[in-house]
Amino acid sequence: MTRYARYKGNSHRNEHEGTDWTDMNLSKMKAKLEEEAKEAHKIERSENRRLKRQETKKNKMVCFNCRRPGHGVEDCPEKTQGMGKKLKDRVCFICGEKDHRAMNCPSNPRGMYPEGGSCKFCGDVTHFYHACPKRLGKEENPEIGEVLSTFNPMENTETLVEKERKIKEIVTVKKKPKIVLF
């Protein structure tokens, strides 16, 4: 069989001897297997590097529960012992005593708000807004038959409207004009 390479019209034909079919199949299969082996080797090396990175990262990690390297809080062997015992080991950095944390320290005026602030609902510094006991107590659903408020139709409605206006005036804050300095 004759093959023509670099065919550019009739005048520039280069004739080559044809390759045997058995040689073509073996060489293609061999090349394909070598390519797959190289690809598998690359993937294996990449996987080994990834596993090594994970292992070094895990060894550098320090547990926040027992303060030992090599595992995290979720894998801590001492986690089942409870936090009550661990609180005795920790020292409050404000007063130096060993039985409480800084956020619960009696000599800490800021409480759980180290940069200042307080609960938006009641103004206390010992809890956050979402855990406010007063707010949670008011959000509870009333029991069936409980009277929430009463309405007297004989009451003067103008006084109610005036009260609402006064409340709105108190609540709305007048905006100051912006001063831009260049």
From TrEMBL:
Source organism, top-level taxon: Eukaryota
Region (Disordered): 1-25
Span of domain CCHC-type: 63-78, 92-107
Gene3D superfamilies tied to this protein: Zinc finger, CCHC-type
Metal-binding keyword on record: yes
One GO MF term attached to the UniProt entry: nucleic acid binding
Coiled-coil regions listed: 26-54
InterPro entries: ZCCHC9 (IPR042246), Znf_CCHC (IPR001878), Znf_CCHC_sf (IPR036875)
Basic residues bias spans: 1-11
UniProt GO cellular component terms: nucleolus
Keywords per UniProt: Coiled coil, Metal-binding, Zinc, Zinc-finger
PANTHER family: ZINC FINGER CCHC DOMAIN-CONTAINING PROTEIN 9 (PTHR46242:SF1), ZINC FINGER CCHC DOMAIN-CONTAINING PROTEIN 9 ZCCHC9 (PTHR46242)
Protein name: CCHC-type domain-containing protein
